[in-house]
C-alpha cells in the first residue's frame, strides 16, 4: 500500500467512526425515548441490540486503524491519540457496559432501581471524549505524507528523473 493511500484509509475510518458514533449515541438513542407508544423495557432492549452491533463496528474500526498505523512509521503523537482512543473504548467495553447490562437485567426482572444512575453519564462522557479524540486525531495523521518520514512516491519522481523514466 502506498503511503498516500494510508491517509485516506485512516481519515475515512475516523470520520466514519465519528459519524456513526454521533448518529447512534446522540441521535438514535435519545430519539427512541421520545416515542410515547414505546415502553421503557422495549426501548432498552432496542438500545442493547443497537449498541451490540455498534460495538462490533468499533472493534473493526479500531483494528483497521491500528493495522494501517502499524504499516507505516508513525510519530509518538499519533500513537498517544490512538492509545487514548483505545483506552476510552476499553473502559466502555470492560467496565461501563457490563454495569449497564446488569442494570437493564434488573429492570427486566422487575427489581426497583435507583432513579439516578451515573453509569449512563460515564458512558456519555466517554462517547464525547471519543468524538473529541477522533476529530483531533485527524490533524496528527499528516505524518504519513510528511517529509520527516521520507519522501513520498511523487516526491521521489520529481527529485530523481531516472525513477520517473523507469516508472513510465
Strand and helix map with partners:
Layout: H1 3-32, H2 40-70, H3 76-108, H4 118-140, H5 153-159, H6 161-167
In whole angstroms, the N-to-C terminal distance is 19 Å
- Tell me the total number of β-strands: 0
Order of helices and strands: HHHHHH
Counting H and I runs of at least 4 residues, what is the number of helices?
Answer: 6
Return Rg in Å. Answer: 21 Å
Question: Quick check: average pLDDT?
Answer: 83
Helix/strand class: mainly alpha
Task: Indicate the proportion of strand residues.
Answer: under 5%
Helical fraction equals: over 70%
Number of separate domains: 1
Low-confidence spans: pLDDT under 50, at least 5 residues?
none
Shape: elongated
For the sheet with most strands, the description reads: none
Protein architecture, described:
With 168 residues, the protein is mainly alpha-helical. The chain has one domain. The chain is built from six helices and no strands. It has helices at 3-32, 40-70, 76-108, 118-140, 153-159, 161-167. Helix 2 (40-70) runs antiparallel to helix 3 (76-108). The longest helix is centred in the middle third of the chain and has 33 residues, at 76-108. The two termini are 19 Å apart.
Amino acid at each position: 500500500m502506498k503511503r498516500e493511500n494510508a491517509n485516506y484509509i485512516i481519515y475515512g475510518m475516523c470520520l466514519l467512526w465519528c459519524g456513526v458514533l454521533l448518529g447512534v449515541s446522540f441521535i438514535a438513542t435519545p430519539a427512541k425515548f421520545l416515542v410515547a407508544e414505546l415502553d421503557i423495557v422495549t426501548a432498552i432492549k432496542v438500545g442493547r441490540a443497537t449498541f451490540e452491533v455498534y460495538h462490533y463496528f468499533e472493534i473493526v474500526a479500531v483494528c483497521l486503524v491500528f493495522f494501517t498505523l502499524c504499516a507505516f512509521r508513525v510519530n509518538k503523537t499519533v500513537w498517544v491519540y490512538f492509545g487514548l482512543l483505545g483506552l476510552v473504548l476499553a473502559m466502555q467495553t470492560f467496565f461501563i457496559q457490563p454495569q449497564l447490562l446488569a442494570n437493564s437485567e434488573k429492570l427486566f426482572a422487575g427489581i426497583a432501581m435507583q432513579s439516578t444512575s451515573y453509569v449512563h453519564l460515564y458512558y456519555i462522557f466517554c462517547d464525547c471524549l471519543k468524538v473529541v479524540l477522533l476529530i483531533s486525531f485527524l490533524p496528527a495523521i499528516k505524518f504519513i505524507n510528511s517529509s520527516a518520514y521520507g519522501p513520498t512516491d511523487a516526491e521521489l519522481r520529481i527529485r530523481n528523473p531516472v525513477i520517473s523514466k523507469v516508472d513510465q
